[in-house]
Amino acid sequence: MKMVFRWFGEGNDFIPLEHVKQIPGVEGIVWALHDIPVGEEWPLERIKEVKLQAELHDFNIDVVESVNIHEDIKLGLPTRDFYIENYKKTIERLAQVGVKVICYNFMPVFDWTRTELFKELEDGSTALFFEKAKITNIDPIELVKEIAENVSLTMPGWEPERLKYLTKLFDLYKEVTEEDLWKNLHYFLEQIIPVAEENNIKMAIHPDDPPFSVFGLPRIIINEDNIQRFLKLVDRPANGLTLCSGSLGANPNNNVAEMVRKFADRIHFAHIRNVRTYENGDFIETSHRSSDGTVDILSIMKAYHDIGFTGYARPDHGRHIWDEKCRPGYGLYDRGLGIMYLWGIWDSLERLKQGEKQCYQSMEI
Ligand code: CS2
Ligand code: MN
Question: What is the dihedral sign for C-alpha 46, 51, 57, 61?
């Protein structure tokens, strides 16, 4: 398992790379050019700049999250070919600096959706919260306004320029069924996967967060059956997954540990985090500890260990603790704690395995 840490770039993140370096066992940063509008090519000079910054701290830049997909591709509009060509050029340029994995998602309009960014937990920490009743009743434009008032930095997938066209986007999506979205995803993959292969890059789709429809928009990367269908669309290793335990775990019927075992060789990137789900459909992000939430992080780690996972992993989101001023979901402290919890489990499993081996060896003697 290669541990990495999401960093939003110089001037766009509160966390200095020196501090990330102090978390044990982090090999690389997970990055993106967040200021480049979705659909445009990423300039090589800008990509190289990030590489230089990372190298100053001895971090790799193997994983990009995300090269986002233009809505015209998801909508299947005739203009999609132009954006797909741009995407190919970006893949080629990322390969030039040694990028290995590109995380992306295929969620219409929004990236992750929550109703509150700083919901207080019992201990006074705060975390991202999803309230089902609120989502059902609120106008998405109102929600976007509310969210924007509470955050100082632009959040990927919630860029104000794009959200200005929200009403238009919702109109366009009225005609798009889940099957249409599958078709549009298939079309994209058939063009992109060969280019990824030629460039030695693995594409890794992120599941929908939450893994069900919000505001009546279609969502398809939501459970084991659909992920299986996705992998068969283009049945090649370069067409793989970012398996996000927190996103999938927001539906208690999803068994993420089982998915780790089932999709083992197609998981290129693991997002590991916990959520606590409630019977009314609400959920809140908690610490990584298994007993804090309803996602069984211990079993998930055991599954990754059993399959001999050698891909990239990151703690994904964390709570906001110790009065940290940070980007919602992306504080240093709780993600640092999360990493130590993940290493604790991983190292114990490693030691047990070695212990067993030694034990068997001595039995043979
Ligand atoms: C995050 C996503 O919600 C999550 O779990 O990891 O915001 C993720 O960064 C993007 O959807 C990936 O494209
Ligand atoms: Mn995730």
Answer: positive
- Which of 8, 30, 65 for a ligand 1 pocket mutation test, highest count of atoms within 8 Å of Cβ? 65
Domain ranges of the chain: 2-360
β-bridge mates for residue 239, sequence order: 203
Nearest ligand atom owner, CA of 327: 1
Find the helix or strand (DSSP H, E) in which 90 lies.
helix 80-96
pLDDT value at residue 337:
98
Condensed to tens digits (0 to 9), the pLDDT of residues 10-51 reads: 888 889 999 999 999 999 999 999 999 999 999 999 999 999
- Nearest atom in ligand 1 to 246's CA: 5
Task: Please state, in angstroms and rounded to a whole number, the distance separating the CA atoms of residues 29 and 96.
Answer: 17
Which residues form the catalytic set?
A: 206, 244, 271, 316-317, 330
**Residue 362 C-alpha to ligand 1 middle, in angstroms?**
47
Q: What is the pLDDT of residues 160-197, one digit of tens each?
A: 666 678 888 999 999 899 999 999 999 999 999 999 99
Nearest CA among 187, 143, 183, 146 for reference residue 166? 143
Candidate of 5, 34, 73, 206 to mutate for ligand 1, largest count of ligand atoms within 8 Å of Cβ: 206
Residue ranges of E strands in 53-99: 60-65
Ion ligand 2 — residues with CB < 5 Å: 244, 271, 316
Type of residue at 357 = K
What is the side-by-side order of every strand in the sheet holding 116-120?
A: 116-120, 126-130, 283-285, 275-277
**How many Å apart are CA 254 and CA 256, to the nearest integer?**
6
Q: Which ligand is nearest to the CA of 6?
A: 1
CATH pick for 2-360 out of 3.60.15.10, 3.20.20.150, 3.40.50.2000, 3.40.50.880: 3.20.20.150
Residue 156 CA: nearest ligand 1 atom is 7
